Every structure is written in C-alpha cells, then in structure tokens.
Amino acid sequence: MTTRIQKNIKQYLKDNIGIIGALLILCIFLSIFPKTSGVFLTHKNIFNVLRQISSNLFLACGMTMVIILGGIDLSVGSIIALSGCVAAGCVARYNLPIFAAILIGILIGTAVGMANGVVISKTTIPPFIVTLATMNVAKGLAYVYTGGSPVRVVTKQWQFLGAGYIGGVPTPVIILVFVLIITAIIMNKTKLGRHIYAVGGNSQAARFSGISTARVKLLVHTYSGIMAGLAGVVLASRMYSGQPTAGDGAEMDAIAAVVVGGTSMAGGSGKIGGTIIGGLIIGVLNNGLNLLNVNSFWQYVVKGIVILLAVFVDYLRNKKKG
C-alpha cells in the first residue's frame, strides 16, 4: 500500500511539475518581495487565501468535468448569486432552519445544472449558448428575488458555514477537502469517470461503444450545478448576506483554474489534481495582486494573460501530440 501511494505521488509530481514550479516561484516571490514579505506567509493570510479559493475550487471541480467533455459552463457565476440569495432569504424572510436553507440553495443550483444538461444532451445546441442563456436567466432571477438589494442574515449559525472554523481550520476548507475527494473518486474510480473521458475524447466512438453520451452530459452538468449551488451558499454565509452581484466573473476564475491546471479545452484529458494546483495559482495570484495594491482593473488584465498563456501551452501540447 505504501509503495503504491509513493508511486501515485511521484506520478502526480511528474504530471504537474510545470504548474507546481510556477506556484512555488509565485509563492517565493511574494515571500521575499519587500511589500508583501511580512504579510504573505502569515497564518491569517494563508487561511484567508484558502478560504477564498474554496469557492473557486467548488466551481472548478464541476468545470473540470464539463471541459473534459469538450464543453463549457458559463452559468455557474449566476447560480452562485441565485442560490446564495434564495438560501439567505429562506433564513431571513421565512425563518426556515439553517440546514433547510442550505439544502434549498444547493437544490436550486442542481436544478439549473440539470436544465443545462437536459438541453445540451437532447439537442445539438452548443453548451456555450445554452449556459450563456441560463447565466442570464439565473442572474435575472436573483435580481428579481432580491429587488437588487442584499438579503442580510446576522445569525451566527448561518455565518459558521462560510466564516467559521473547525479546530482552527476554516469551515469552507474542510468542506472543500471532502468535495475534492468525492470528485477525484468519481473521475478516477467510477464508470462515470471513465465515460466522461471517453465522451470528451471522441463522442461518436463512445456512443458506438454503448456509452449513453446524453446521460453522461446530463450528470456532468448537474454536478456542475450542485457545486455552483454549494459555492453560492458558502459565499453568502461568508458575506453574511445573499447578494445578486455575488459570483460576477466567478466562471472565469473557475475556467482559469481548470485550464492552468492542464485540462485541455479540446476535451478528453485533464485531472482534478492539476485543477487543485491551478486553483491555488489563481488564488495566490489574486491575493498577491491585492497585497501589492494593484488596481483591480489591471488585475483583470493579468488574469486574462495567465489564461491566454495556459491555453497557448495547451495548444502547443496538442500540436506536439498531433
């Protein structure tokens, strides 16, 4: 067993040596640069980074599967807003138990993800168009439900999910560990995981081999919706309110984490282990830019360049294989 674990670790390091190196270089720079050296490696800042990247990695877990299929999900940011606002409203407006509110928020994400999956699996409409439409629908519903104003929740029980601690570790990080384990098991140890890679690699060949491509697409987009619903509830808890503007641009950070982590936009290849490193890079990059007081407008430019470089590396890799 020990030998097998060591072998898996060595293989993981070998597969992700490039992005691990990039993460280390980024961390070393922020650790020694005069403006950030006294802040970056503090206990408070490290936990702050981990708490912030948890929501992004929730989305990235579902997005990894979607992109391996050769698709994309633009609706996850809006699902964050809708699920967070409704969950907060269940507590603040209807006095429902915290657990019921959390469950309703996640179910809303599940419903939107399932709607995406049904349309994508039953038609030939590109996932980009389908999820672009549901992105606007979910965002609009969030504004309609809230009237454009935050839904505030001040109970400590609500705040625990996103801003609490378990044994000194932020609650979202604990949840994230379980989500990553579940996602890794699905992708590496189940029939569904094998089918995701098969459909992403060659959908027609997968269908001829007896795989229900429609079922795979439905399940993957539903899972992406579940992850977005969970992210929305956790984020609403961390901000003490459900906000219709929450999740703006979150889909871009999730896609960036997946692509930087080595998942091919062409579909058929990618690992959740790479996505974890990609999420850490995006999180540390965001944190570093904030510590350096870089204008938020320029932060968009930097992240755009990072995504473009990651896609270009993927292009070169696929060209070499070809």
UniProtKB/TrEMBL annotation:
<feature type="transmembrane region" description="Helical">
    <location>
        <begin position="12"/>
        <end position="33"/>
    </location>
</feature>
<dbReference type="GO" id="GO:0005886">
    <property type="term" value="C:plasma membrane"/>
</dbReference>
<keyword id="KW-1003">Cell membrane</keyword>
<dbReference type="GO" id="GO:0022857">
    <property type="term" value="F:transmembrane transporter activity"/>
</dbReference>
<keyword id="KW-1133">Transmembrane helix</keyword>
<feature type="transmembrane region" description="Helical">
    <location>
        <begin position="165"/>
        <end position="187"/>
    </location>
</feature>
<feature type="transmembrane region" description="Helical">
    <location>
        <begin position="297"/>
        <end position="316"/>
    </location>
</feature>
<feature type="transmembrane region" description="Helical">
    <location>
        <begin position="218"/>
        <end position="240"/>
    </location>
</feature>
<protein>
    <submittedName>
        <fullName>ABC transporter permease</fullName>
    </submittedName>
</protein>
<feature type="transmembrane region" description="Helical">
    <location>
        <begin position="127"/>
        <end position="145"/>
    </location>
</feature>
<keyword id="KW-0472">Membrane</keyword>
<dbReference type="Pfam" id="PF02653">
    <property type="entry name" value="BPD_transp_2"/>
</dbReference>
<feature type="transmembrane region" description="Helical">
    <location>
        <begin position="102"/>
        <end position="120"/>
    </location>
</feature>
<keyword id="KW-0812">Transmembrane</keyword>
<dbReference type="InterPro" id="IPR001851">
    <property type="entry name" value="ABC_transp_permease"/>
</dbReference>
